[in-house]
Amino acid sequence: MSAISESNSETAVLAVGGLFTSGTTLLYSVEAFLAVVALVVGTVAAIGQHRKEGAGSGITAQMGVIVFAVMIFLSAGIAAAITHEFERNGLSNPVAVPSPWGR
């Protein structure tokens, strides 16, 4: 018996049973991971620019990297993954929002 899972011939109990069982949620997690990779790579590039051109240029580059990574991370990754998990577990907003396109 391990700390993460316990199983016998009839049932299997997982520590986090339903997390990432959907391909959509896994895709959103990959998007969040790529945002973190963009932040790390951009930080390394900003440090190089700081060494070459000075502190002002390095700070400006780092702020741009942070904004870029946050835009990737928050654009669809977290919001869509949380919304998807809520909907998959039966939590939804029953209020109908009218579409401006009539659909």
Walkthrough of the structure:
Helices cover 63% and strands 6% of the residues. It is mainly alpha-helical and 103 residues long. The N and C termini lie far apart (53 Å). The protein contains two helices and two strands; from the N terminus they run E-E-H-H. Helix 1 (23-53) runs antiparallel to helix 2 (55-88).
Quick summary:
The protein has helices at residues 23-53, 55-88; strands at 5-7, 12-14.
Secondary structure elements and pairings:
Elements: E1 5-7, E2 12-14, H1 23-53, H2 55-88
Antiparallel strand pairs: 1-2
Helix pairs in contact: 1-2
- What overall form do the CA principal axes indicate? elongated
Counting DSSP E segments of at least 2 residues, the number of strands comes to: 2
Q: Please count the helical segments.
A: 2
Order of helices and strands: EEHH
Structural key phrases:
single chain; 103 residues; mainly alpha; 6% strand; elongated
